[in-house]
Amino acid sequence: MTAGEHSSMDRVPMMVANWKMNLTASESEAFASQFVSLMQAHTEALGTRLEIAIAPAYPALDRLGRALAGSGIMLAAQNLHAEESGAFTGEVSLAMLEDLGCDFALIGHSERRQLFGETDTVIAAKAQRLEASSVCPILCVGETLEEREQDATLAVVDSQLAAVLDATGDGLASRMVVAYEPVWAIGTGRTATPEMAQTVHAAIRRTLVSRLGAVGKRTRILYGGSVKPSNASALLSQPDIDGALVGGASLDPDSFAKLALASLETS
Ligand code: PGA
Predict the structure, then answer these.
(1) Phi then psi for 95, rounded to 5 degrees?
(2) Which of 6, 51, 81, 109 is an active site residue?
(3) How far apart are CA 104 and CA 191, in angstroms?
(4) Distance, CA of 26 to CA of 161 (rounded, Å)
(5) FRET partner for 205 with CA separation of 20 to 30 A, picked from 34, 114, 173, 199?
(6) For position 9, what pLDDT does the model report?
(7) Is residue 81 annotated as a catalytic residue, yes or no?
(8) How does pLDDT run across 167-184, given as a tens digit for each residue?
């Protein structure tokens, strides 16, 4: 079976905001009130035809979570520590995220890999920590420009994916969301063309299906890297692109609402 053959109807599209080190708790609340009102007319679609999650900086999780309560919009963390608790100054544990009502946690974002030295082993340990939790991982994978130029894209993405799948059981894999984010497209304004992205998404789908069978057909694979309202529809209409992980364009309620609606239209 080729990747595009099975129906994307089985996969509820997702639009995830990754605010990175932007927006204070107060700014997050102001965002939430504007965004919730922009999405008001579409709340019946949330959960069944579209899932939306926002990953603010840690200090905003509590107040943003309260501001989003009852809206159907979910809460995500940008990271977590692999250990349960202990002497890890500056780090945040899974229990702390669970206590704040997080639904998702990003793991393996390229900025964590590149700027904070996170290896596949560290990322796999974080995935293992999430196994007994209802917090769902959004595993980020993607190649650097150098790796793309060396034609190593699929090998790099496959090994990043394998590091987590090898370390975890089918239970986690059945809930996991994958985000393909070419490093050269993040925050640069350079987006992969829809065809380039689909080629990698289809390869990820093949790996997931060969390792997980039917479960792999249901895994959502998001695209990330300079997604904005003007390029979202073309990306989202690719058969194996099930949503987007959005940085810069998610910081403005209007633009993030446009992205959410683009995702609903292509669902
Ligand atoms: P960007 O970031 O949309 O600003 O390129 C995406 C991401 O890093 O998740």
Answers:
(1) -60, -35
(2) 109
(3) 25
(4) 36
(5) 114
(6) 61
(7) no
(8) 999 999 999 999 999 999
Tell me the two tokens of residue 34.
């504007």
Instruction: Yes or no: say if 183 and 143 are a contact pair by the CB < 8 Å rule.
Output: yes
Active-site residue flag, 42: no
Nearest atom within ligand 1 for CA of residue 140:
9
Q: pLDDT grade, residue 7 (50/70/90)? A: low
Show the ligand 1 pocket: residues with CB < 6 angstroms: 18, 181, 186-187, 224-227, 245-249
Output the residue whose Cα is nearest ligand 1's atom 1.
Answer: 247
213 pLDDT above the threshold of 70: yes
Res 148: pLDDT:
95
- Residue 189's pLDDT band, with cuts at 50, 70 and 90, is confident
With the most atoms of ligand 1 within 8 angstroms of its CB, the residue from 14, 18, 116, 188 to mutate is 18
